[in-house]
Amino acid sequence: MLVVIKGAGDLATGTALRLRRAGFRVIMTELPRPTAIRRTVCFSQAVLFGSWTVEDVTARLAETPGDALTILERGEIAVLVDPEGTCIPALKPDVVADVILAKKNLGTRITDAPAVIAAGPGFTAGVDCHAVVETMRGHYLGRVIREGSAQPNTAVPGLVGGFAGERVLRAPADGVFRQLREIGDIVEAGDAAGTVDGLPMVCQIGGVLRGILADDTPVHKGMKAGDVDPRCEIAHCYCASDKALAVGGGVLEAALSLTGALRKE
After folding, report:
1. pLDDT tens, residue by residue, 201-232
2. pLDDT exceeds cutoff 60 at 30
3. Neighbours of 222 (CB within 10 A)
4. How many CB atoms lie within 10 A of CB 221?
5. Where do the structural domains in the chain lie, given as residue ranges?
6. What does the alpha-carbon distance between residue 14 and residue 206 come to, in Å, rounded to a whole number?
7. What's the pLDDT tens digit per position in 122-174?
8. What whole-number distance in Å separates Cα of residue 143 and Cα of residue 13?
9. Which of 135, 139, 127, 168 lies closest to 152 in space, CA to CA?
10. Tell me, what DSSP letter sits at residue 129?
11. What share of the chain is helix, strand, coil (3-state, %, to 5)?
12. In whole angstroms, how far apart are CA 60 and each of 63, 70, 75?
């Protein structure tokens, strides 16, 4: 079965890993200039480098929907620069999964495919899509919602290693971002991980730099531009997160159920 995943960031990549390993053929859509933070584990990097491997799965940039189908024949994931999802009518996928995590619906419709699944707030099951997957950390993370919506966005990051908002690095001003540190670096509270037009973006806690924007990314003041993981496990920077795989598991469950692939004994 064919799935089109809208988005190719870290949660979308965890979703793609789950689906591909379960036997689905996966095509992803992405912006022409990706803004993912956890770049080492995002298939969006294929847009910049032509291909990108996360764990044991490779994604490759496709120029057209036809090219994407050819890539699938090689057992790889295809990534199209298509933020509007214009490829969907041509591809006629069995499943469309919106994992952009924009906290609002950017154009996904319940009529896009026989099974339409959306991750996070901004969608209502039965209206915008057939099922919603919870993305908020906690007891309900990854659960499939058949009626209603996911929990509303609180703008407060979930706890990781005992820290919440302190682990997120935000742009100190409007301008162009410059990184001073690399993903996988160990940082301390007070270290500058990057700058925006000369103003430092300072770490509030110590840990491993799990994500950071790429050089020359336009930013606005307060925009998320980095992520410090206080657990200090460098290996976590190079594999899908628990949250990404939990959300991916929810999308996989919904896809199997809605397409009839999952049958009761």
Report:
1. 999 999 999 999 999 999 999 999 999 999 99
2. yes
3. 11
4. 12
5. 2-152+242-258, 165-230
6. 26
7. 999 999 999 999 999 999 999 999 999 999 876 666 667 677 688 999 999 99
8. 18
9. 135
10. B
11. 25, 30, 50
12. 10, 11, 11
pLDDT at 265 over 50: no
Return the residue matching tokens 């053929």. Answer: 25
- Domain 165-230 in CATH 2.60.40.10: no
If you ran DSSP here, which 8-state letter would residue 210 be given? E
Cα distance between residue 79 and residue 67, in whole Å: 10
Q: How far apart are the first and last CA of the chain?
A: 22
Decide the pairing of beta strands 95-98 and 77-81.
unpaired
Residue 134: is it exposed, middle or buried by C-beta count within 10 angstroms (0-12/13-18/19+)?
A: buried
As a three-state string, the secondary structure of 46-103 is HHHHCEEEECCEEEEEECCHHHHHHHHHCCCEEEEECCCCCCHHHHCCCEEEECCCCC
Compute CA 160 distance to the chain's CA centroid, rounded to the nearest angstrom. Answer: 18
Q: Are 115 and 100 within 8 A, CB to CB?
A: no
For residue 85, what are its two tokens? 């999802």
What DSSP state is assigned to residue 24?
-
How far is it between the farthest Cα atoms of the chain? Answer: 63
What is the average pLDDT across 25-36? Answer: 96
| Contact between 99 and 5 (Cβ < 8 Å) | yes
Task: Record the tokens describing residue 194, joined without a space.
Answer: 């990057």
Query: In this structure, which CATH number among 3.30.420, 3.40.91, 3.40.1090, 3.40.50 belongs to the domain 2-152+242-258?
Result: 3.40.50
Q: Is the pTM of this model over 0.90?
A: yes
Task: Assess contact for 200 and 169: CB atoms under 8 A.
Answer: no
